[in-house]
């Protein structure tokens, strides 16, 4: 048993299949109570119930934990290996410490750190996570979530913060390297269709439009910084386009011979 802030004991346990329907009902009630700070779900009640049935019936790496008081469901959390997928508290118990107990549980289960998404408009939740040591690391325009509402990626950086942050940087660098390679290949292909190819044919007006468009998705960097970044990317891509391509490698990594 774990005491909550109001002195009431909470029981924490992994969810079982019989919890699916009560968990779905709690989710629906919590989202409705949080509106308009949180947008309403885009899925129907039947779809939500079906999702929870699959959730607590799975034997994968995702964990679902419930908090109970006197045998009644008080809240729950869903944990992926490196993400806090969701944390919800029964609306009439918000502010009584249930969320804090569940978040402490998540930290104990993921000592290496974890991230989560919270809607930008949900200022109460953002303050709650900030009070408990989570950092805001990224903001989006919401185009990647189902509700199409701006959101914020927050993270608890774990017991070894630098290790956690470097892992995240490494993941971004891997994605960035693939995107840069794709960008360079497209730049090289475009030169074949330009009246004046290469550096001499650079369109500074278009490059300014690119930086402005990117700034809408990355306002923290700003148009001026993105302009400098893209100038370096385009310069390097055009330089690479002027060089002969390296020979292809076979599946074992050896240079393939051309017959």
Please outline the helices and strands.
Blueprint: E1 2-3, E2 9-14, H1 20-34, H2 45-57, E3 63-69, E4 72-79, E5 84-89, H3 98-109, E6 114-119, H4 123-131, E7 135-140, E8 151-156, H5 161-191, H6 204-217, H7 222-241
Helix pairs in contact: 1-2, 5-7, 6-7
Question: What do these coordinates show?
Answer:
The protein is α+β, with helices and mostly antiparallel strands. Helix content is 44%, strand content 18%. The protein contains seven helices and eight strands, in the order E-E-H-H-E-E-E-H-E-H-E-E-H-H-H. The strands form two sheets. It has a five-stranded antiparallel β-sheet, sandwiched between helices. The chain has a three-stranded antiparallel β-sheet with strand order 6-8-7, with helices on one face. A hairpin with a 4-residue loop joins strand 4 (72-79) and strand 5. Helix 5 (161-191) crosses helix 7 (222-241). The chain is elongated.
């Amino acid at each position: 048993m774990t005491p909550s802030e109001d002195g009431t004991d909470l029981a924490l346990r992994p969810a079982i299949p019989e919890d699916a329907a009560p968990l779905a009902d709690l989710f629906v009630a919590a989202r409705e109570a949080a509106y308009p700070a949180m947008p309403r779900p885009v899925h129907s009640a039947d779809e939500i119930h079906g999702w929870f049935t699959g959730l607590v019936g799975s034997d994968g790496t995702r964990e679902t934990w419930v908090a109970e008081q006197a045998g009644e469901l008080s809240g729950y959390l869903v944990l992926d290996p490196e993400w806090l997928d969701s944390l919800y508290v029964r609306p009439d118990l918000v502010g009584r410490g249930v969320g804090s107990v569940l978040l402490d549980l998540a930290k104990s289960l993921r000592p290496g750190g974890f991230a989560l998404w919270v809607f930008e408009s949900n200022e109460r939740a953002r303050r709650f996570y900030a009070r408990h040591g989570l950092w805001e690391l990224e903001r989006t325009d919401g185009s990647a979530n189902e509700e199409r509402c701006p959101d914020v990626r927050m993270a608890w950086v774990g017991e070894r913060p630098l290790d956690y942050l470097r892992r995240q940087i490494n993941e971004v660098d891997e994605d960035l390297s693939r995107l840069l390679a794709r960008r360079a290949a497209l730049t090289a292909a475009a030169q074949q269709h330009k009246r004046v190819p290469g550096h001499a044919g650079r369109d500074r007006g278009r490059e300014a439009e690119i930086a402005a468009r990117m700034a809408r998705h990355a306002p923290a960097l700003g148009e001026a910084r993105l302009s400098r970044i893209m100038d370096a990317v385009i310069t390097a891509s055009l330089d690479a386009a002027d060089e002969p391509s390296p020979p292809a490698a076979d599946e074992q990594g050896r240079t393939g011979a051309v017959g």
